[in-house]
């Protein structure tokens, strides 16, 4: 629990960063899935090339 506004702001910033990272990863996975489903090999390769093996 934050003891003051500075700690609260720091905690909020950290959580916001984590949420943005998760949303970005989810969007990449969704876009890759859509490209594969639509048979768009070029898009699938482009998207997959920006993802780590853990993400894939």
Terminal Cα span: 35 Å
Oligomeric description of these chains: single chain
> Can you count the helices?
2
The structural class is mainly alpha
Radius of gyration: 17 Å
| Major sheet | none
* Molecular shape: rod-shaped
Beta-strand portion reads under 5%
Please tally the β strands and state the result: 0
Order of helices and strands: HH
Q: Low-confidence segments, ≥5 residues, pLDDT <50? A: none
Look at the structure and give the mean pLDDT: 94
Helix content: over 70%
Short description:
This protein is an all-alpha fold. The chain has helices at 5-37, 41-48.
Descriptive terms for the model:
mainly alpha; 73% helix; 56 residues
Characterization of the model:
The protein is mostly helical and 56 residues long. It is 73% helix and 0% strand. It contains two helices and no strands. It has helices spanning 5-37, 41-48. The longest helix is centred in the middle third of the chain and has 33 residues, at 5-37. The termini are far apart.
Describe the protein's topology.
Elements: H1 5-37, H2 41-48
């Amino acid at each position: 629990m934050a003891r003051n506004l500075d700690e609260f702001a720091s905690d909020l910033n950290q959580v916001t960063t984590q949420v943005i990272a998760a949303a970005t990863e989810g969007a990449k996975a969704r876009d890759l899935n859509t490209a594969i489903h639509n048979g768009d090999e070029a898009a699938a390769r482009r998207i997959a090339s920006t993802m780590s093996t853990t993400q894939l």
